[in-house]
Fold each of these.
Amino acid sequence: MSVSLSGCNSASSHWDFIFRITAALKSGTACDCNYLRLTFFDNPKRTRLWISNNTTAQNPQSNTSNSPRLFVQKVLAAGATAAFPAQGDNVRRVGGASNSFQTDSGTASVGTITAPGTADDSLHTLIFPNGSLPCSASGPMAYLRVECGATSNGPWTPLGGLAEINPCVPMIQATVCRFDTTGNDRYRLGISVLNSCGIPASSFRVTNIQRNNDTNFPNEGTSVWSGNQALSNAVTNIDMTSTGSGGQLWISFTTDGGTNTSRIRVSTNNNTCVGARAAAESEAGTPEPLTAQSEAETGTSTPPETPESGIPETDASPPPPPTDQ
């Protein structure tokens, strides 16, 4: 995303994640539970469950303090899976101290998670494409508290302490050159693996390229290429098959066959492709700065609001690959 988070406006630093979490099945042990209550906390200033300016949440775009902490809470039957956060989830501010983990009293509602591709749709996260942290951000992406209950209404017994969610985020990078000379032009993208997280390059597969004029929302515009292109240890060139319009190209990719999808964004330019090679492979190629949305969608990496799926609109999943958008 191009929107600042926690006062950090470094390029390619704001990503969106959604995590899918599954409650354990009963297995005949003393820790078996009919129901699990899961409380998912953000970690300000590194992550925020809310991005819009709000009296209760303050202004997550400019607030550089490590507060206020927000959370969403769900009850899952054994074996059930849910997204954190998901559209319609109630986001609440913790009770007591603004950076506490108190949820039993004194909490205040901030709002409900909105539809994918909108502002308050995910866990907004500070992270660079290579996995490092910008703007003195620290700690995990999120914390998770797990409690056991005999019924969906409890009573609830804590299972261990707070767990940290901080996955390695698989990431790609891309350069762009123009090989059409008329109209809106078609572009060639030279795509390679930036952060593998131990995953073979051939497991990285590009599935869609979307073109629009929006630096935050990857679902706008027109698909100008779709398929299932495996990457390699070198640069893989993909030519747009249609033109569309706009100065932003959103590249969707997956590392797990489509369970999690991430998106990165690159800007178009006037660099002409050299011969049959992409500018990405020649002295004429000029890398464009990346932003993305990881949607662990996660993670909707949107890691790569697209992963943004993410997990990299991202929608970034547990673990996400990141809709920033």
Amino acid sequence: MDYQSLYDEFADKALADIKLSKKFAGANEFNSGFLFGTDDCNCASMKQMQRNWADAAPGLFADFARKLASGHSIETFDLPSTSRWKNAGFGYIADGGKHACVMLWPSIDHSPLNHTKSNSMFWAFELVENGEVDDVYLVWLADKANVKLRERLGCWYESSSPRGVKHVSATDWFERTFGKEEADRLTDVAGRVRTEGRLVQGFTVVALPTEHELGSFRQERLRDYEAIELPLIRYRLMGRGMSERDIDILSRNIQRKDLFEILFGQASFAVSFLSSEWRYRLNTLSENVEQTGTVAGYIKAIEQMMFDLLPLWANRDYKVAFGAVKARNPAVPLTPALLAEKDKEATLGPLAYLFASYQHEYFNARIYDPEIDYKSFRELLFGRLRSFMDNTRNGKLHKSNFYDLGKVREIRDEVLDIMFMLLGGLRLDEEQLKYLDGMRAQGESSPDDLAEMAKALNEGLDGLTVSSIESAHLIAIEHHDDTHLWSIALSIMGDGIDSHNSYYYSPLRGLSQDEELENIDRLFRRYRSERCASDALAEVLTEYVVFSVKSEPFHVPLQ
């Protein structure tokens, strides 16, 4: 039997129900109450969710599991009509016994397991004691890795299991009943429904990786760069007219010293690049995901990379000019002091001309490997930079959102080509190589790495202006757990923006609750009094990063 078709049918039904209801009050409800969520909703939110979603997840999941059981030749039967939860479960015969299962929300605090005789626990005991089944599985729609679920159910399990009532996660029950392969499929389909469901609901949530995830992702991208990206870059550049000899020289330069590791290191451009790669991987799950933030991160990565490379030639008798060389803008000696002064002026356009235009030959003729065909190389690099600027800066980024995944792939290819040419094409001595070594990742990922990535992930909302926003709310949330974090959210609707529920929090700064609350109050005061609201929003967005939340917010309307 084609079991995959059953999983697809379940996912399609779940998404259809979400589209019909579309009444979740916020992303915290969706993440908490739906399949395999790990956080608890408050009581009002849970009741609202159960009212609004007519085909509630437990009933939908029970119907799916029963069809799968039949497909595995497991005989099933209806639960007694007197059961309060008969539509969320079924009976089945396996391993020489009669069993019953009932599907429950992952929210522990607001489950049916209260202390009334009408709840599932008492009904389950009664079913076993009356001899109708040998045991009852209370199947929580959660993953077996859910630590909170295991801890909270421990005492219940010890007291109820001897009486024939067993608490299990959905993935554990699937593995026990149908095998590990089916449990893995279940995890995959749950992820698909969560991802696509958020899109239906209009949530844009970009998860900040943990330290372990960031380290693993960095290593994964390093492996992929050598094995996958380098051959593709080579193919694209040959197609654009670069000679095989020059490509060999660039490849030798970038691989001989493992310079490509710098792309995933700790320099500012590497953080921006890795952040966009993280966002790109998440967003390629669906063509409908808005990709403006991904593109903005790639733009910043190229700008920062060229600027971060300039210290290689500081105090070495090089001159530069950011913009056309004129009497009012002469080329001046390249020094650390000049770089500090020009930090804000050195944007993508002037830097592209400095590194690749014949107008700045006084500088760029000296920085590239003398073995390559310099003029052809410079012409191709300038062409890639101009194409990149046209694709990302021609009014597209700030006037409309990116939803075309094919166009985003083109932009990403341009970024990879440009980075390869810049790193592989440079003429570097030992002192300069030592400077680049300092840009590599140093050991394991740290909280500081995450903080820098948090800032980079905010790039996607730079294009917001007051005139483009129809309504907006700043939301402050206190996390009631051991982390003592406060969160801020910005929820906006406006021209060309469907709806964003983007949750921002202070990334691992180690502040106390009082300090964090004081900081939030300061932001709110500025937000309320600032004559230019976009400046106030910009300040918020530079300090907070997209994440999920789990507490009731309070709203401060846009003035």
Amino acid sequence: MFKCAICQDLMPPTETIETTICGHLFHSKCIKTWFQTNSKCPQCRRAYDSTRKFVKVLHHRIFMPDQITDKSDLQEKIFDLSSKTELMDKEKDELEKKLKMKTQQVTRILNKQNKMIKEFERKSKFGKSRIVQYQFQPFALIETITRPIKAPLTDRQIKRKKRVKEYFEKKKEQRKERVAEEAIL
């Protein structure tokens, strides 16, 4: 149902309702009384001359699709909507908490991986080797090492490469063990 902007009462389908040129709805009595002392629309303040105040008179049937006429029905509808709103607010809060937890978890994983990358970079500063690519996978870090193809590797470089490979295999096993322990807990 609509409300009259002048008296703030509901406009039931049985009352005569009038509309101004600007399209605002009012009780017939309210708008006629208004225009006896004013020449502007009570809602939008559009000026009217004395001859063109109303476009048409509407009778009956101005209502919303699922019209509710009883106050108790309205109160019940308000209660239902407020309880739905509360449930949605609780659900939103829970989802925000889950999002925050997941974000923190991802941040911790990324921090661990960044530490591992820095450690690897620090330990791999031999010869002219460089780190070309890091690929992110959950709970794992894949490093690809390339060397310029200028000269064959020396025995020292081969031993160092073997030690680095063993180091990362050991770290990989330790990570697997930690993940297995966390899964058990």
